Amino acid sequence: MSDEDLCFASASRLREWIARKDVSPVEVTRAVLARIETLDPRLNAFATLTADAAMAAAREAEAAVARRDPLGALHGVPVTVKDLVVTAGVPTEFGSHTRKGYVPAEDSPLVTRLKAAGAVPLGKTTTSEYGWKGVSESPLTGITSNPWKLGYNAGASSAGAGAAAAAGYGPLHQGSDGAGSIRMPAHFSGVFGLKPTYGRVPCWPVANNDQVTHMGPLTRTVLDSAMMLKAMAGPHHWDHTSLEAEPADYPARCADGIAGLRVAYSPDLGHARVDPDVAALVADAAGVFEELGANVEEAAPPFGPDGPELIRFFWAAHVLRYAHFLPEWEDRMDPGLVACIRDAERYSAGEYVNMRQRKLDYVFSAHRWFDDWDLLLTPAVSVAAFPADRLQPPHWPRHDWDWTVWAEFSYPFNFSGDPAASVPCGFTEDGLPVGLQVVGKRFADLTVLRASAAFEAVRPWADKRPPIA
Q1: What is 355-422 written as a DSSP string?
Q2: What mean pLDDT value characterizes the chain?
Q3: Residue 142: CB partners within 8 Å, gap ≥ 6?
Q4: Annotated catalytic sites, by residue?
Q5: Hey, what CATH class is 3-458 in?
Q6: Are the beta carbons of 25 and 119 closer than 8 angstroms?
Q7: pLDDT category of residue 27 using cuts at 50, 70 and 90
Q8: Are 422 and 192 in contact (CB under 8 A)?
Q9: Would you give the distance in Å from CA 4 to the centre of its chain?
Q10: Are 418 and 366 in contact (CB under 8 A)?
């Protein structure tokens, strides 16, 4: 087997091969690190690469196999962690000069769990500054390129994770999602991204943004995401918002199928602009669910049109938590983030409380609507990748900070906490990936995985490798 094939191999296969001694963790990790060394000067998906520590972990994993120790579910499989998640002894810089050189003393619980499952951490993937925008650029690390077109947006704050997954930097990549930052990179880079139900994977430190940040996987296959989710999920007392329930056996059940499910398809959530090439691919993908045995109807969720005003208010309001950096750091911060902070400085506490009631009503409307449906299908994003030095595509209206105009499909389900995934569903004429969003009821993570796996079985994508490969 070639090194490239090892780098693109799924976690499920690597775990089997490692247990059978067909390949060793050292062999896999060495191949992935060599690939990163070759490609990342162009891709720029890593904020910090911990090659020596990765090789040490791989050697220990290999020794465990030789000793016939019990092996974890991800034993010897490479994994990356986003640079918004704290890691003991490894820099966590949040894509910002304001945190350059910060080295935490403790791991976030999800990192502890990935290590306990036997995964081999490779380092930290890039993020926009504090994860504030849907474009793969930060003042600290620069542009992270889309593997399908260098210099183009790899999408949102988990861009490094999505680009790494697409480029064959191993199979498992952790992301976080506050308004689409798992699903948007998955859409732009042509991989699978799952935002689980809010609280399914503990988030620590708990984000100060009204409980919208979800932790989840970006992978090349649905089964790999199911494996990674099972390893990370479950309650943790450090996160008082984490769900009490232990994870289901997602890997064992994600191939159960979706016959008989009630599926709504909404091309625009009743209000969103979508580029025609994206719309056509998503519409075609939605039709596949009929072939899979689901009952599909086009629908217009009534809560959709209220979303834009809410996201523009709350996105700005919550970045006020970075306002204290401005006196010292403004000239080294992302100009769009600064503009967003300045825009929010005019809000009053009374306005915030009143808008939050509107948001709570919006969330209830979404949950009530799901009483009649098992799944909702929409575009993951309104546009395909565009130049990463812009906040908006060239053919969309310009704004100093508002990137959400082309991402109207993701944030509603951060507000509601529902599970949602971006599933690769085709390519534009320019060869850029497009994602179908699959949304489930709150707590129905397994239903989303089942639907994604059923689609993957008839429209597979993991064999497609981007030009940078």
Answers
A1: HHHHHHHHHHHHHHHGGG-SEEEEES-SS---BTT-SS-TTS---SS--GGG-TTTTHHHHS---EEE
A2: 98
A3: 44
A4: 82, 157, 181
A5: alpha beta
A6: no
A7: very high
A8: yes
A9: 24
A10: yes
What letter does residue 246 receive in the DSSP assignment? P
Residues in contact with 213: Cβ distance below 8 Å, sequence separation at least 6, in sequence order:
176, 177, 178, 203, 207, 414
Q: Where are the alpha helices (DSSP H) in 67-140?
A: 109-116
- Report the alpha-carbon distance of residue 206 to residue 317 in Å, rounded: 17
Strand partners, 387: 152
Q: What is the pLDDT of residues 5-19, one digit of tens each?
A: 999 999 999 999 999
Nearest to 325 by CA among 129, 91, 177, 125: 129
Tokens of 11: 């976690």
Q: Mention every residue, 6+ apart, whose C-beta is less than 8 A from residue 92.
A: 83, 84, 85, 86, 99, 102, 103, 104, 124
Helices (H) then strands (E): counts for the chain: 16, 15
Alpha-carbon distance 293 to 100, whole Å?
51
Residues 6+ apart with CB under 8 A from 239: 109, 199, 202, 203, 204, 206
pLDDT in tens, 252-292: 999 999 999 999 999 999 999 999 999 999 999 999 999 99
Reduce the DSSP state of residue 122 to 3 states and report it.
strand
| Both tokens assigned to 86 | 């704290």
Q: CA 464 from chain center: how many Å? A: 19
Cis-peptide into 205, omega within 30 deg: yes
Which amino acid, residue 48? T
